[in-house]
Amino acid sequence: MGSEIEHYNAHQPEHTGRASFLALAFRMATLTGAALELKEGLNALQRRMGADADEADRIAEQAGAAEVEERFTALIHEAALSLRAVAEASGELAGAADAMEAHARETSQAHQSEYRGIYEAVNARPDVRQAKPGFYRTR
Predict the structure, then answer these.
(1) Rounded CA gap, 16 and 10, in Å?
(2) Rounded distance, CA 57 to CA 85, Å?
C-alpha cells in the first residue's frame, strides 16, 4: 500500500481557445503557488532525511558497541549515506523550485503591470467593440 498522489483540479476561468488576461493571471498564480508548495515540501523532506541519517548513524554506533556483526553495521552506515544523499538532492531541488517560484512571481507581476490597465479599460466599456488581438502590435 504505497502513497498515491491525489489529483487536484483548480477552478479556472472558462477557456475560450484564446489567451485571456484572467486565464493567464490564474495560470501564473497557480504555477507560483505550486512552486512554493513544492519548495516547502522539499525543504521538509531535506530536514527529515537529514534527521533520519543522523538517527541511522546513532543506531550504527550502538550496534557497533553491542558487537553486532560488522556487515550489518556497515549496511546501517550505508543507509545513512544514502539518506544524506537524498537530503542533499532535495535541498538542491528545493533551490530550483525557489527560483521557479520567484520567476513565476516576477512574470505574474510583469503581466499584471503590462495588461491590467488594458483589461480594465476593455471591461469598462463593453459596448465598444475591440480590435482583434495583435491589431495594435508594433513591428
Answers:
(1) 17
(2) 14
